[in-house]
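Pair request: fold both.
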Amino acid sequence: MPKHQAITSLVAALALVGLLASCGASDPTPTSSAAPPTSTPTPLPPGATPVPTPTTDAFAAEWDALISAAQAEGEVFLALGGSATRYGRAAFAEFTRQFGVRVVASSGGGTDNANRILAERTRGVFTVDIITFSGGSLDRLRAAGYLNPVSNWLIHPTVIDRSEGWYLTEVIWGERDKKYVMADSLTVGPIGAIWYNTNKVTQEDLDAINDYTDLLLPRFKGRLAVRAMNLEGGKGVINKIWLTPGLGPQYLEDLHRVAEINLVIPSGDDELSNGVATGKWDFGLFGASSAFRALQVLQLPVRELTRTKQIGGLSTEIGGGVGMLNDAPHPNAAKLFANWWYTKEGQTARIEARSAFGPNSNVSLRSDVTQGSFPNHLWEVVQQIPQWRADGTLDDHLLVFEENDDWFELRAQTEKFFNDLYTELGYDAFVTF
């Protein structure tokens, strides 16, 4: 499969948006929502069932009625992805402040929350309204038929009409059916993050790493750690390594055989970051960036090499977003939250909350939202993406991985690849057959 294909869309891969379990203040006093725009929205781009184009007056009445119905329900329940549990409190509090609807959010990773939702729904129990995870965990709910199509709940004109206030006029989807989860975040950066312990790694070590293949040098043998790569969710970085020229499956295999990489459980973001911070391992690769940044804020000896030095080529991906479950226990509150999340107000709350935890790894797909703590040199790259795409030169500047059926199928292929490898190497604890 080629590195990247004719660019008709950017990738939806990692579950880049993370949120923190929280609930709003009791008996909040809602404020009125932002005034609706004066322009008449256009339908959703191809790939989704067309949405009626309401007039401004009709939308204002519908929006006010939705707010009242959501306030009567009083709360909305969210199931979060792994990194999503770290910064969402402030964003959720802003939703509660605006609308007087309490947010109750589960902690844990996407895999655990997907398992719980699937188990509950087979018993006829419906507790979750909104999900924020992606990847394989999202795909399991899609396959089970538990997701509510966007065309059933999207009503906000500034989200339906992307002619203004968005980097891309088309919707980029986070699942293969292209109708349940719209991406909301754009990342430009390294293929995979490389974190290290500043007390254990020398400048000579850092100078020796100029490409991902340099991690296979004898000096790094046994010093690297990574989450097991057969995880159900968060496979975007694995897919990208698999498809990048010069890396691919042979490189991933060599990390295990040649570099003798140390494994933690697939959902072990905290185990990986804490292990590097305490000196158990010198390097942590390809994940858990939110967990590492939280430790960095606490002044622990962890730094990201790929933040200060380009290793290989820059890549771009689109991800994040929220999905609404069908038969939601709080359908009006869920509809209000899902629409608000994609507005300027919702995305501003997301970016500001995430930026409060240090350098941000992504920006909003909305061009009318603050840069936050996204690095200035990469922000300049983001500003050029629409023109590069229009010129057909995007892949001359960035490694681009197109979202398509092959991308989604690769998740299952890599899971089998690593299960077979772990079985052969005797890593029985990490085999997920």
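--- second member of the pair ---
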Amino acid sequence: MNTNTIPAFGLGTFRLKDQVVIDSVKTGLELGYRLVDTAQIYGNEAEVGQAIAESGVPRDDIFITTKIWTANYAEDKLVPSLKDSLQKLRTDHVDLTLIHWPSPNNAVPVAEFMGALMQAKAQGLTRRIGISNFNIALMKEAIEAVGAEHIATNQIELSPFLQNRKVVDFAKSQGIHITSYMTLAYGKALKDPVIEAMASARNATPAQVVLAWAMQLGYAVIPSSTKRENLASNLLAQQLQLSDADMAQIARMDRGERLTSPEGLAPAWD
């Protein structure tokens, strides 16, 4: 068995805070979500941990992802920061730990933080390790540091309008899974007439169409929502099958439209 497998469908918690994130995670778990994605910089790990604890769903049934923030990349900081995250999340391990963004100005070399991630894995603090927002050059460095077989995923912005094919193709060639975030393009994809037409033809929602598209390409998705009906509806994307014609039509929507590229953090995108 490939120990790097990750669920195809999960719940994102970016921008959700306090009671809002507790309610979203508890509702999601109640509806059947089993992957919860958080990060140190989101400032909500403790609330996510509380929601999981109060959900009544056994810890072993839940896949928890967190991401190390740039300030904690140094070899002497990474493992302690992850232990702090585990305390907040009320667990002795997470299922996946990602490097959130490349180290600004390469302040901490890729080999150093990937090595520290491997140490965290060896100590049982995380079952899998991976990267986020890495371009091809950085992926090559990460592979050189720890081997592609140890990199479970590269989590990148990916939507019908930003299909990131160069990064995707390189990751696939190395056996590295892609996790798509902002798959719905902050809701912009839901208003696209082509996607709206596909949705109405299938008696589905535009969100279901976009999420099904990404999963059919083999990507994992982590949409977030605070509304119970949207959380429930998004889950149904897993049952939706798009035709080859639909997939080809969405493939043509790529326009390289990137919605997140923080200055000082983002690499030179491929």
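Observation on the second member. The mean pLDDT is 96.
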